[in-house]
Amino acid sequence: MSQGANQQEAQAGVQSSQPWNDPDAVPFIRFEKVTKKFGEFYAVDDVSLDIYRHELFALLGGSGCGKTTLLRMLAGFEEPSAGKIFIDGVDMAGVPPYERPTNMMFQSYALFPHMSVETNVAFGLHQDGYSKSEIKDRVADMLALVQMSKFAKRKPHQLSGGQRQRVALARSLVKQPKVLLLDEPLGALDKKLREQTQFELVNIQEKLGTTFVMVTHDQEEAMTMASRIAVMNDGVIKQIGTPFELYEYPNSRFTANFLGQVNLVEGTLIDDDEKYAIIRSDDIGGDIYIDHAVQGHEGTTLWVALRPERLRLCTEKPDDSGHNCFAGKVEEIGYLGGLSTYHVRLESGMRIKVSEPNTHRHNEPRYTWEDKVWVTWETGSASVLNQ
Amino acid sequence: MSEIKPTLKQRFDRWMIRHGRVLVIGLPYLWLFLFFLVPFLIVLKISFATAEYAQPPYSALFQWVDEGVNVAINFGNYLFLLSDSLYITAYLNSIRIAAISTVITLLIGYPMAYGIARAKGSTRNLLLMLVILPFWTSFLIRVYAWIGILDREGLINAALMGMHIISEPLIMRQTEFAVYIGIVYTYLPFMILPLYSTLEKMDGSLLEAALDLGCKPWKAFLKITLPLSMPGVLAGSLLVFIPAVGEFVIPELLGGPNTLMIGRTLWNEFFSNRDWPIASSVAIAMLIFLVVPIMYFQHIQGKTEEAGK
Predict the structure, then answer these.
(1) Fewer Cβ in 10 A, N or C end of chain A?
(2) What is the pTM assigned to this prediction?
(3) B212 contact residues in A (CB cutoff 8 A)
(4) Range of the domain at A95
(5) What is the ipTM of this complex?
(6) How many domains, chain A?
(7) Which of residues 220-239 of B touch A (CB under 8 A)?
């Protein structure tokens, strides 16, 4: 999980401009109070969202959260029941898909089965009446970009899943759309290929500078690829932010839970002085010390989000401040190679998840079942949630 | 070590597992052999015989003469088919009428199949039901009903004359027009059903992809839907064309004396002329005519199935 955060930090150096933080920046795509109803069901409920030029923006959420509907409204396959959508300043109301400056890469790829790879890619250009030689050149360039030149004469059914994905990408990029829409672009690929393709897609996006809007249910995919992510649930956007912001500063239990692993501890704010905010929790059986300001007054119910990799296990009670230190027993161990996860049953009865990187080749695991351990974390590691 | 003896049921089950396939495939093949291939061979045999005033009314092909077999094959019937323009005209006429009917059926059936495939769940089932519904009454009765509609004193003429749109009844029955109506009406479901099944299977995202790439809806239909529904078009067309070529009842009841089709010629040879060998050779020649498109169809279907994988 830290991979996403690291990448973000690395990107922060290169990508100096963050238009979403610039109040003068003009959004490239704008959803203005967009609602989409299917019968009595609100697929998208009063969503406002700005996406900027050259972004790789991800709509992230579980099935039925409205992310695909949002994308289809951008493509023109659905019209909003209320609200407006602007692309590059132009109101898209009533503009049919074939006149929009968008192209879509479909989840099923939707390659035309009766046409060769070449003809599939050339299809969009033919519609716009380019000359034969220009079509030929642009198709060849695009196939070279996705490394499919060798397969130009093949039919889709003669290709593997990964190859089809590349053809679909080439077909949707060849018209140089202002916005490329990707519906679960890597959903049909196996894990290894998916990871490899993620970076290829990002490279292509950086090379072409096209604005990408991607729909995915895979949080890892969103975090690896996107400049910003909108986390959606039940037709509304729960939070928008960079992968780093979402992971480190979730604004709700939903986001905290959706991105990565988290232990959520319910408690009451009992003291908020200059040094620490103290949250008393029956769940964890003690007080939690937080070294940053917390929203709310004394007596407010809050949730403390503890990421498993920010927690530490020790066999002896650490003798520093004594803050945030709870005793328990190892109940379950999951060995994942690079890291191990431990489920620790605290004395309060709460089960807490801790993960530790396996940085050395130990002969034996550090802890085993029924070991008595202390779970501890630094006062700055936890984030506090109001909802 | 003593072996456990399988019970009778176990033995039966094992036998079924080993030989069940042969049994399942074998029965229909036996059926086809007895009721299709054997009669066909008999007809083939008769087509090489000579007509005689006897019982049966044709000469024997094989004769036992002095401990040897005397084979008398008569190609004359086939040569006769070629020499008499009646037969060639009848064949060509049948093919022409069947082809035109097929095209009309396709033009009417395609939009219907498309509409049904695009309809929502319950409406779709209702529409399919309506297409199949006419099969629940006898074919003959439905053709007779058309006599009642197209006749000189039929429904259409009565209505038009009642409304004073025409003063003289239109001659519709006993024309080629009536034959077209009959064939198109009768065979329309055979066109709609295969077309529906290919159109219904079509991935809707393909059309969306075409629109997305800048294709207008009517062009997307021509470039995507139509080519992808070709197996259905072909299947439907053959299902209409092949039986229409040999159609007897419709031209007999709705067509005029001038509507010359091969089915009627065949009937006349058998029942009016009692020339079984000629009738048989007419039948065999028609079969050969029709086997070619069937084989072509099978070939194409095999190819598309392979491509669909």
Answers:
(1) C
(2) 0.78
(3) 75-77, 97-98, 102-104, 172
(4) 2-101+177-257
(5) 0.80
(6) 2
(7) 223-224, 227-228
